[in-house]
Amino acid sequence: MFIDDLAIQDTAIPQPLRPPGQQVFTRRAERLRTLAQGHAMADFLHCCAAIAQAQQACHDSLAEQAVNSTACLRDILARLHQALGQALGDGSHSAILCLLAMDDDALQALALSLRAGTAAANPALQAGLPLLGAALQVQAVISARQRDLGRLQHTESDHCPVCHAPPVASLLRRGDSGHAVRYACCSQCASEWHVTRVKCLGCGNTRQLQYRSLAHRDAEPAAANHKQPHQHRAVQEAECCDSCHGELKIVSTLLDPLAEPFADDLASLMLDMLAGEAGYGRIGVNPYFIAGDS
Ligand SMILES: [Zn+2]
Ligand SMILES: [Zn+2]
């Protein structure tokens, strides 16, 4: 039995905000390669790993610079494009050239909608959007790491307290007292902010929740258990809300210390499909996977 299965109140105050680490993209690339082994979507996961590795190199060379301008975003996109070269398909290549040719206002407007997960479908640009999302992440991680985050007032929110982007997923970590604590992970800057263990981030509902996993796909979904809130069953689970019909992944670093929200979310897209068939829509935004992407 895990200590987290015991219904003991965690009296230690969890760290409210965890800023992104210096090697955030390398860790993600390594996790993607691990998850790709024997995976039905291995090629896709390897492609995302190559993007994450290029993001780390770009981050490292620009880490000390001011990167918030649209010109900088275009520069980061061009660097990623150059680094990945032939790894990108022809469709991505021509879409990225279109993105690089956009004027500042149009590129900025597209970037804002992509950050919010609301970019409208545009066939000419679609295949380039994951790389624009990757460039936005480099920009967001560098900006977050340059800020003094200790000054931020933390309130539990459904959006990142650092850069106001939506979460990619939530994750369980072992807190100082040994019990699991839950964080939401930002889809852009990868900062993690503390959130209630059993609660829908879409609507705040804490009661009508159920947890689905691929390991137990044929079983009845587990209901939320407030007496044992830290009980967990699989490394990757979908928290499904019967109030707003939203669904957000929970990734457990207690069950697998190398679990990483972006990578584990991508490797469990099948779980979103099954949740979708049951009537739940994704809340998490993952910039490596744009809906409608081919
Ligand atoms: Zn953020
Ligand atoms: Zn909800």
Automatic annotation (TrEMBL):
Specify the domain of life of the species encoding this protein: Bacteria
Q: For the FdhE N-terminal domain, which residue ranges apply?
A: 13-64
One protein family per Pfam: FdhE_central
Record's keyword terms, sorted: Cytoplasm
Residues annotated as domain FdhE central: 159-197
What protein name is recorded for this chain? Answer: Formate dehydrogenase accessory protein FdhE
Q: Which InterPro entries match?
A: FdhE-like_sf (IPR024064), FdhE_C (IPR056796), FdhE_central (IPR056797), FdhE_N (IPR056774), Formate_DH_accessory (IPR006452)
Matching PANTHER family: PROTEIN FDHE
- Which residues are in the FdhE C-terminal domain? 198-288
